Amino acid sequence: MLKKAALVSLFTMFSLSCSFVALAPTATPAPTPAPTLTATPEPTGTPVPTDTPSPTDTPSPSPTPADVLLDGFERPQPELYLQTDELGSSALCEYDSNMPHSGSYAARFTYDVQADGFASCLRWYLPNGAYADFSDADGISFWYRANKADQPIVLFIHIGDPGTTYTAAFRTTKAGARDWVQQTFMFDEFTLASWMTTVLEPFDLNRVNSYGFEPDPSDSDTADSFVLWVDDVYLIHR
After folding, report:
1. Are 235 and 68 in contact (CB under 8 A)?
2. Measured distance CA(165)–CA(39) in Å, rounded
3. pLDDT score of 223
4. Nearest to residue 77, comparing CAs of 120, 123, 9?
5. Which residues pair with 71 in a beta bridge?
């Protein structure tokens, strides 16, 4: 009986002890809300690339017409003509192989002009049966040299027959008295020759009778003599 009472007493004490050490229940954590899923938009149709327009071709500029050699004074050499007054003026119009600007020859004009006189050397086209046509060009250029500086000279173009003469004036320079220099005139620089009193022909470059060089008659109050060489005469374009 004593053992049983002791066992009961121990069991009672063990039960009481267990009631004191019983663990408090752990709080259940609140559930974490699931992330909201964003709907992926449906892909739109694949865009078709726009055709790149072909570049518009830039028109090529029209080529400038090439300058045309009018006279190089080489063989076969054109005949040179002479015109003088009745005052005793003279000119020698010839070819010179000792003083070419290019090639083998130049034209050499030797003038001996009396006061108020004139003498000219020229290329005359009418003996060939037709006028020369300079109308496709805008001007004329040539190379010259002289044995003296400051000599007044005109380049003349005679239009038609008997026709009208038009001129462009220049003076030989110091450089031109030492070596070849180039001189250029546009056709709109030509004016009626000082010795012309009547215009029989307009400046129609389809009807070139002749062209040439002479001491300027408007500046010939005193007698003078000099030599002028001319070579490589070109019809030019702007």
Report:
1. yes
2. 97
3. 84
4. 123
5. 233
Residues 120-161 pLDDT 10s: 999 999 988 899 999 999 999 999 999 999 999 999 999 999
Structure tokens at 38: 């964003």
What's the pTM value of the predicted model, to 2 decimals?
Answer: 0.73
Amino acid of residue 219: D
Contact 169, 152 (CB under 8 A): yes
Two tokens at 9? 């007493």
Report the pLDDT value the prediction gives residue 44, as an integer from 0 to 100. Answer: 52
Structure tokens at 165: 């003469």
The two tokens of residue 118 are 């004139």
Contacts of residue 216, Cβ cutoff 8 Å, sequence gap at least 6: 152, 153, 154, 169
In Å, what is the CA distance from 234 to each residue of 178, 186, 190?
A: 22, 12, 16
Residue 139 in tokens: 């001007």
d(CA 146, CA 176): 6
Q: What is the pLDDT of residues 50-67, one digit of tens each?
A: 555 555 555 555 556 789
Q: Which amino acid is at 115?
A: A
State pLDDT tens for residues 80-133: 999 999 999 999 999 999 999 999 999 999 999 999 999 999 999 998 889 999
Helix (H, G, I), strand (E, B) or coil at 15: helix
Amino acid at site 92 = L
Q: How far is CA 53 from the centre of its chain?
A: 32
